[in-house]
Amino acid sequence: MVDGNGTLHPRGFGCACLLGYRLNCPTIGVAKNLLETDTDKFHSQSSLGFKRSLANRRRETRENLTNCGDRLLIHDANGTVCGVALLNTDNSINPVYVSPGHLISLDTACEIVLKTSKFRTPEPTRLADQISRQKIRQLDAEQIRSRAIPNRPARVI
User: Fold this and answer.
1) What stretches in the chain show pLDDT beneath 50?
2) What phi and psi values does residue 52 have, to the nearest 5 degrees?
3) Is residue 153 part of a domain?
4) CATH assignment of the domain containing 64
């Protein structure tokens, strides 16, 4: 699981795709925000088939996603589904944007995100973020200690 995009990317190949390809393992892109894209080339389509501009996408997702597990398919300009806006918890207002990275289907990616979400950010990403922030704090503290001037004995003249 990658904190970023897979196929739901302006070029169709986000960091989840690259990481999965390089490691040759399944990856899922889960983003908290939809990337700003050229709205002439990248559209969201509702089930009615109306193309939506980027400005209307956030409003459309809030209106159409009300229950945990609700999905709104996001299509590219060719009509290919490249990801979904997914409401992944009962108390979420804003969706996460899920897309396959490498060696995984969109449906399986959504199932995994739903099963690993206690909060808006899925647990693997949330825990990795907490651990990395804790390590950064430790490294910062060590760096500050190493730069401190040690106590010097007073010179006797």
Assistant:
1) 39-50
2) -120, 140
3) no
4) 3.30.2170.10
